[in-house]
Amino acid sequence: MQLDALKALATADRRIVDLFAKDATRAGSFSASTGDLLFDYSKTQIDEDVRAALLQLCEDAGLATRRDAMFAGKKINETEGRAALHTALRNLDGGPVDVDGQDVMPGVLDTLHRMRVFAEEVRGGAIAGARGSFTDVVNIGIGGSDLGPVMATHALAPYHDGPRVHYVSNVDGAHIADTLRPLDPARTLVIVASKTFTTIETMTNARTARAWMSEGGGDPSRQFAAVSSALDKTQAFGIPEAHVFGFADWVGGRYSVWGPVGLPVMIAVGSNAFDAFLRGGQAMDLHFRSADWVENMPVMLALVGIWHRQVLGRTSRAVLPYDQRLLRLPAYLQQLEMESNGKSVAMDGSSLAVPSGPVVWGEPGTNGQHAFYQLIHQGTDVIPCEFMVAADGHEPELTHHHRLLLANCLAQSEALMRGRSLDEARERMAEKGLDGDELDRQARHRVFPGNRPSTTLIYPKLTPFVLGQIIALYEHRVFVEGVLLGINSFDQWGVELGKELANSLGPVVDGVASADDKDGSTAALVAYALKHRNQE
Ligand code: F6P
Known about the structure:
There is one protein chain. The protein is α/β, with parallel strands linked by helices. The chain has 22 helices and 15 strands. The chain is globular and about 75 Å long. Residues 142-145, 194-196, 199, 202, 253-254, 339, 492, 495 line the site of 6-O-phosphono-beta-D-fructofuranose.
């Protein structure tokens, strides 16, 4: 990625407020919209020249060709020799998609149909537990087999009219113990979600759940379902074929919520609402495939990201949904963005010459305002913020809450941009009756540097369709950033080493193998754990 032209434009003295002073209509030209979604990036230092240079990166990287290759099912995940076709899962009426000369759509639509039938039968009670219809569903999975459905279940709470849905991911026994304790084993459906069906956390939790169910009068042979691309392994676990929902290896874990991994969401909100979610994703796909780059929301979101991270060197970005139901979106995006673009090797095996993707973090507003916004406003690091907010909430009787929420969201981006000068701070202190050195000292604590960039994504209301648009928007943003960086966004080799070492440490922490070949720190920590544990 050639950043020279952009680096030359990265002057610290370009103030966002001055860009607005020069062009009061800037919000119109530095924004992108599709359907009812509006993405405003005018509160950044991006001007016409910067944008032109950013757009040039798309041409230099052959973005259109790469995008078309992804949608066409080409094996763009080169290190694993796979296509990356999560878009096929929401290609409800988009025609054939070939992988290795074979149309994958009949299989996708058939599985979707089976999911719909299963979900509706669970919701209606036709598929039931040993002592009656299911009151609870427990999804056991981790990473992409957990974060997407967790996020979507929270997001779609107003549409949730099916059984209660719980998620267990952590191998920490506390997670499954606390989740299962209040449930009736004979009226609980357990879904084991694992693409590989080998993930140690998931398989350990699945076995624990199976034992809990058998001991409590449930029937695992009827009350378990599986979501996986390893059908031989689901069978070996004893899950009946009719309860197994497969997906192909061209769906990456963190891109999998659109297919069978979304089954708990479908059971919660029903197949119609889930369809609307898919339609939202499909609408964003169509936009991404057809809009000019400058009007293309995922592309512009990605270019803002490149500007902040690779050009200006901002090491993190905050995702700040002013939408309590998006409370798990930051965690979901952490996996999507950091597992995809946290790489230091380019596709051709060479070292990446520019920084990889940033640290992504966040919490819903307004909560964050009373916690970490202090640092965002006055800390020494600049943290680009991505605000999200709905024009309307789901609670007509609580519109005053929603107006406060919206006002706070808009106030934060305004405050970050405008800041407060020393003179303004001094005036305030003078009004409070201070003078001399004390006025000066107190005023300096009340200065806000301002010129801190943010973007805002605003949508009418958090419906299933809108959620689909937002998730697909971020998926494509990650894809575009990956193409511009020249990396493979679809593998995750960086998770392997820790897994291997955890396997080798298993017998050591069990006390049946020696820690002698471990480093001094690891050996000392093992010794401490063995000495202090009472349970066998
Ligand atoms: O360890 C990382 C990872 O492979 C993720 O990419 C994936 O989403 C998660 O583990 C779970 O994998 P699986 O669905 O195969 O259990």
